[in-house]
Amino acid sequence: MESLFSARIKKVPRSFIREILKVSLDPEIISFAGGIPNPALFPLKELEAATAKVFAEKGAAALQYSNSEGVLALREQVAARYLHTHGFQIPVENILITCGSQQALDLLGKSLLDEGDRVLIEEPGYLGAIQSLSLFQPQFVPVPLAGDGVDTRAMAARLAEGAAKMFYCVPTFQNPSGLSYTESVVREVADLARKNNFLIVEDSPYGELRFRGERAPSFYQFLPEQTVLMGTFSKSVTPGFRIGWVVAPPVLQEKLLIAKQAADLHTSNFTQMILAQYLEDNDLDKHIEKIVKLYGKNCLMMEQVLAECFPAEVHFTKPDGGMFLWGELPEGMESMALFDYCLAEKVVFVPGEPFYTNNNPTRSFRLSFSCVNEASIREGIGRFVRGYNAYAAS
Ligand code: PMP
């Protein structure tokens, strides 16, 4: 069978996180690994009511095939949301509803990338983007992240070595680091994109989950003609619906639509209608407030316990929102080795490796604070420190 597989699929490994999630199914394990939203916050009753209304009012039309662009009412809701949260107007025609924002990556890869094309990506970067875009066999050009966003000097140096087609980034509460770009970094990257003619793919699944600090502008505000926006309802409503979107300039949108048609005809009409109904009947801001309150509390608690328990040479980021923080071990240690010591203590996290495009060992690791509480933070970090001490003593 091996000889029948495509070169493309043979080069891409299974998602490392999905493998870790299997380990964390053991009820005795405390997991800081999963990047999943807290299910206690899914608006069950409201979605149930929206479902009943869609059946009653739309009937069979909700169960029929539909257009590939997506349900108009939902695209209008997405446009209204950008106006509300960012203050800019997006033409509804530029919005394509996708099966989660993850599908937008696949459609962008299909529409833009040939083998060997250079793709700028943050280092560390979102592992799902690395996996998805890897199938198109590009040449990843990693650009390191600093505390205020991507390192624009390093980006300019990489561009001097050769042109790139796109820069994929998560500028707000990045996955995995929790870091956010400042306005000056956004402006500098937009300048580099303008001068070097590459697309900026701004992925923002966590942008609305802010518990402190101020929002920097979107790339769209400086360079709309070269910016692609990716968004999702996975973190604000529910990931199970698999509804996201991509905003692109019309010439690119046309290609994304062809890729979408070829991939799956359209995103589930039924779930799009339920989501549109939910958004019409409920106050999403109020719902997001609840999420932010819980994640903010968990993050502060985790920061405090980490500061109390870990020696100062282990560094952690201090995110202003989102679901993750990022740690870095002292020189000479490796996060994969730490993982084994921590697994023995029955606590897991995600070692840094899958967030890098090379396979070198890393000193970094990701901790998620979305699905924990005070007790599991205290107990889990306690175990984590025991694992760390055992590793340090080895
Ligand atoms: N982009 C980033 C940065 C993510 O963290 C995730 C979810 N882990 C996604 C995209 C995909 O989200 P979805 O497909 O559920 O919209």
TrEMBL record:
One of its GO terms (molecular function) is pyridoxal phosphate binding. The keyword Transferase applies. CDD domains: AAT_like. Keywords: Aminotransferase, Pyridoxal phosphate, Transferase. The keyword Disulfide bond does not apply. Its cofactor is pyridoxal 5'-phosphate. Belongs to the class-I pyridoxal-phosphate-dependent aminotransferase family. This is Related to multiple substrate aminotransferase.
